[in-house]
Amino acid sequence: MGECGNMRLLSFLSLCLSMGIATFAVAQPKYSVGASDTEIRIGNFVPYSGPSSAYGVIGRINGAYFRMLNEAGGINGRRITWLSYDDAYSPAKAVEQARRLVEGDEVLLLSQTVGAPSNAAVMKYLNSKKVPHILLSTGGTRFGDDPATFPWTVPLNVPYQAEGRIYATWITENHPGAKIAILYANDDYGRDIYRGVKNGLTERGTTILAEATYDNADPTIDSQIVKLKASGADLFVNLSTPKFAAMAIRKIGEIGWQPVHVLNQVSQSTGAVMRPAGLEYAQGIISAAYIKDPMDESWDNDPGMNRFASFLQKYAPDVDRSNGLVLYAYGAAQTLEYIIRRAGNDLTRENIMRATSELGDFAPASLLPGITLQPLSKDHFPIRKMQMMRFEGDRWQRIGSLIEANLN
Prior knowledge:
The chain is an alpha/beta fold. It folds into 2 domains: 39-158 and 299-377, 3-Layer(aba) Sandwich (Rossmann fold); 161-289 and 389-404, Response regulator (Rossmann fold, 3-Layer(aba) Sandwich). The protein is 43% helix and 17% strand.
């Protein structure tokens, strides 16, 4: 080879060194604990038992979704191992299970962990360990409003205080002068969404006539409903988890109380709440949503919803499709798949968080039209829009346009 040939070879090698090796370095797989060339280990806890066991279906559907992916070859050739344990909606049990997942099972990340009380109990621990704690099945304000202190935590739901403010706005605009009674859970979730409703009403010059709380261990809330009716209230705000929301709806119907009934988003499932309560008692209830009603016939020609129906038929044929938690969990699993695919071969915990922060207008099949996941910026809430709706017959009917949910 002559001098010119040598120079060309040197120039080519120089180009490879400046570009090719850099590209090779990026392409080389990188792993944190919980990931390898063949496997990605994902941790989860949900209440499979106890008074909040209705949420257990979230864990089941996520697991079924990853079984489906594994049958198709996994994600980028890696099998997903979904490790989901029962925390019985107990903060102490949640801590135990989080430690088991991180220190025993050595998962890459935790996803779709359910409930404000349980997530609050493990948040500091997971952030101290720098373990991605993402797509939380809660809209607790504390989980997304302080990303500087808790950079490894990202909830999926609309923030509860913002949801509460939406109800306050709807009440004052549609029922000015209403005499308002509120029932809420005596836990982190209940106090959080209650704060949003109360602050929103107060800012608009509206006061609350009566209120009552319940504990998750309570066998019934009959006495609370009787007390709120006796107050003379004509508008009832029901901020309860599914089991207790169904109890409240049924008791209100049985005692003949007929207030305007506003129900929180977490308890609007037709299958898990409305039917157990009695459809005849659920008529006219108002709520707000960002998730599609799986029984709404307007989605019959929706490609994403058709794929959801096919998924259920094969991988979860025994679940009740009318249960909104089923579609919610399916959308969350789609989102986690998107994040992992976006992370590519860099399956470090740091890169999982980068991929989570750059969701980039991704819309899982579960979201209402016009709602997409947003990149994280000043807070860690990827969904900020909801739409009001009314329960009629055996399903929800959307009313009005999308509303931006703000914390203040």
